[in-house]
Each structure stands twice: as C-alpha cells, then as structure tokens.
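ok so i was messing around last nite and threw this chain in just to see what happens. nothing serious, just curious
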Amino acid sequence: MQTSPPNPTFSFDATDADFEATVLERSLEVPVLLDCWAPWCGPCKSLGPVLEKVAQDYGGRFLLAKLDTDQNPGIAGALQLRSIPHVVLFKGGQVVDQFTGALPESKIKAFLDRHVPAAPAQAEPEPDPLDDAAAMIEAGALDDARQLLEMIPAEVRDDRHAALVARLKLASERPPGDKAALAARVAANSKDFDARFALAAILVYENDFNAAFDQLLEVVMRDKAEWREKARKQLVEWFAVCGNADAVSRGRRYLGMYLN
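result:
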C-alpha cells in the first residue's frame, strides 16, 4: 500500500463512493491529478512517491488523488484503464490529459505545467540602503556612502547605521605614521605596543581588518595589564564596524582564547 503524503492538504485517497466529491467537484476549483495504482504494481510503487513530492513542490496548485484500482473497480472501469500506473488530470470536472507509466519527475512537471497555473511571482525584496552603503564603503566609494547614510531619516537609524558611520570615518581619515617604519619597530621589539596600535589603525584604514586584529591580539597575549585592556576595548569596537564576518569571527575566537 502506498505511504501517506507528508502533507494531507495536497494528497488524498479517492474511492468509487466519493469520487464525484473528492475528484470531480474539487477539480472545479483546482486541477486534480488522479494516480491509478494497485498494490501488486511495481512501477506504481516507484511513481507514487514522486507524485507526492511533486504535489508538495507545487504547494497546492494541484491536488493529488490516489485510486487503488483493485479496491475501486468502478472508476477504473469507467476510465477504461488498460494498464497501470495510469495518471489522469481533471480540470473543471473533465479529463484534460493523461499518461501511462512511471515517468521521471522532470516529465511529470512538464506534463503538469501545460495545465496547472503558474506559481505567483515572488515580490522582489525592498533594497536595503544600509546594504548599499556597506558595499560602497568596501568599494571605496566613500562620498556616495556618506551621502546615502545622511539621507536615512534620523528616526529609523539603528545600531547598524551607527556602525557604518563609524566604519566610514575609519576609512576616510588616514591615521598618522609610516606603515613601514611602524612594522619595523614591531619586528625589532614585539612589545612596542604604541607601534602595534598605530600600525593596526593604518591597517583598518586600508580595510585589512585581519592584519589589524592580529596586531592587537598580540598585545592581548603579551601584556597582562593596561595595554591588554586597551587592546581588548579597541578590538570590540572594531568588531562592531568590520564588514568582514569571517575576520570578526576569527578575531573574537582568538580574543576569547587569549583572555582565558
């Protein structure tokens, strides 16, 4: 016997006794696909689950009725079935199309698409200006990003808006210092924390958050007092404005490890 469908709304059993109500009358409102099968039929056992899956995929654009021809010879005879599985499509109380045999899913859908109403078009999501502003900052279009952020009404500005404003400020104002000279100082003295902070600020300006996080994580790891807390606070502040989720995840993970 065929298994019950995962959602009974789209699939049901039909019998000789209720065929008019369950199939013909329902087909006046929505197409009904009638699966004529029998327990001894091997291809029927293959086709049934495919039909049920398709019924779920179409989400109610048609209903699937299943008729055990051994138990319901009246309808089977009226349809003049010569072999099974045999599938009949009803619309408006009438047979409009049919096929015999265990067709693959793609051909079943092609068969249905000739008769079943198309799925309603999904409305395009409203564009999010904050997504646009973030993309502009990443692309270096800072003036465009600034103009867009300023156009957002004050009453709808949220934490993400504030983070993007902060990110824009970091990208707009180059911190003082020579990057190569600062890197040389760090290489010569791993505990030159002033140089690490200055170098990290330049790296953030250049949008290299991974490298900036590494500089301050070194401070957290190497110091146990004021510099460590200063680096922790700066990292948390930069985590909030960084647009690179992977970099933030990595930075948070290592910060947690070094603090424990």
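not much to say yet. Residues 129-172 form one domain.
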